[in-house]
Specification:
The structure is a single chain. The protein is mainly α. It has a domain of 57 residues. α3 packs across α4.
């Protein structure tokens, strides 16, 4: 991990976010959820396209290119790597 990240804290944060996500899904309008999923898919496609054009991206350059936070860019990169799309 090399960046001074505490794995325990990171795991707890992830568990908290999953729980919050499940709570939000229970009260979210299905149409809004579908719009969010479409938006996320478009972002993922744009990241893959940028990676093909410019090579491997880091979170800072991706955030700058897409107008995202660094955390959002890191999430997308990690998600796409885990799905073997990057």
């Amino acid at each position: 991990m090399g960046e001074g990240v505490d794995p325990t804290q990171m795991c707890q944060s992830l568990v908290d976010k999953v729980a919050q996500s499940k709570q939000l899904m229970a009260i979210t309008d299905p149409e809004i959820l579908a719009l969010f999923e479409d938006w996320l898919e478009e972002l993922e496609n744009e990241v893959v396209s940028l990676a093909r054009t410019h090579g491997l991206l880091n979170a800072d350059s991706l955030a700058s290119n897409l107008g995202l936070s660094r955390r959002g860019a890191t999430f997308l990169i990690t998600k796409l790597k885990n799905e073997k799309k990057l």
